[in-house]
Amino acid sequence: MKDGTLVEKKEIPTPSQATQEEILNTIAEFIRSYFTHDIDGIGIGIPGLVDSNKGIVYNLENIPAFTKVALKDYLEEALQKPVFINNDANCFALGEYRFGGADHHQNMVGITLGTGIGTGIITNGELYTGYICGAGEWGGVPYKDSNFESYCSSKFFRNLHHTTAKKLASKAAEGDPEALKLFHEYGMHIGNLIKYILFTYAPEAIVIGGSIRKAFPYFSEGMYEAVSTFPYHSISENLTIYTSKLEDSAIMGAAALVEEDRTPAVNSIK
């Protein structure tokens, strides 16, 4: 990335069932394929717990071989470049704060809605991660008969209603009353999640990302209805909620880790 613009973007499948060494080698070789560009450092977003100072990755749910991996040390030795690693939801929030519409909010939270839910926190203009990037893991917070992830991610559609957000959005676009009703219910759950966030961090803005954000017109009414019941109206009525306009917020945020690390005030950025 150069001057806030992605210069090149590539994808490869994750060899999730391979050995740790095979996966590490795949990552290193993939990153090396970018070395035709002038690179100051390498920023990485990981979907899990990360010691951002030491660059250690813990217990990636979908990659059994990654239980405790010194990813930073491995890549720095292999590639001879400085490496900075953080949780992918934190990278999303940082990307929105640096390059999206949240740049004028000193306190904001980014929420990604997809297969699961992730949240990243900017407080007083700095990325806040907590210990091993565990701050803001609201998906695991108990809610109803399960937790927020069960009601705010794709699991709401798949497990509770045996459909997908994409299929339901197509029906909602046609005015299907049952689809609109389910999205209103989904929005209420998102609104209740936001109230938890307001109690915890009282942000000025919340940015919603992830694939399900595209259905925002159908669940926003239920969401705002739930948020309106927040008891401290001086906070909720001054809250801005909007969807991300960037397709690659997390990638841009990961790239920004390299530059952010040069600013000592940023909290716990690799």
How are the SSEs ordered, and which strands pair?
Blueprint: H1 20-32, E1 42-46, E2 49-51, E3 56-58, E4 68-70, H2 71-79, E5 83-87, H3 88-99, E6 108-113, E7 117-123, E8 126-128, E9 142-143, E10 146-147, H4 148-152, H5 154-161, H6 165-173, H7 177-201, E11 205-209, H8 216-227, H9 233-236, E12 240-243, H10 249-260
Parallel strand pairs: 1-5, 6-11, 11-12
Antiparallel strand pairs: 2-3, 3-4, 6-7, 7-8, 9-10
Helix pairs in contact: 1-2, 3-10, 6-7, 7-8
Nutshell version of this structure?
Helix content is about 40%, strand content about 20%. A five-stranded mixed beta sheet has the order 8-7-6-11-12, sandwiched between helices. The chain has a three-stranded antiparallel beta sheet with strand order 2-3-4. The model is unreliable at about 260-270 (pLDDT under 50).
Polypeptide structure, described:
Keywords: Kinase, Transferase. Belongs to the ROK (NagC/XylR) family. This is Sugar kinase. InterPro entries: ATPase_NBD, ROK. One of its GO terms (molecular function) is kinase activity. The protein is an alpha/beta fold and 270 residues long. It has a domain at 101-244: ATPase, nucleotide binding domain (Nucleotidyltransferase, domain 5, 2-Layer Sandwich), CATH 3.30.420. It has ten helices and twelve strands. The strands form four sheets. A five-stranded mixed β-sheet has the order 8-7-6-11-12, sandwiched between helices. The chain has a three-stranded antiparallel β-sheet with strand order 2-3-4. α1 (20-32) packs across α2, α3 packs across α10 (249-260) and α7 packs across α8. The longest helix has 25 residues, at 177-201. Residues 262-270 have low confidence and may be disordered.
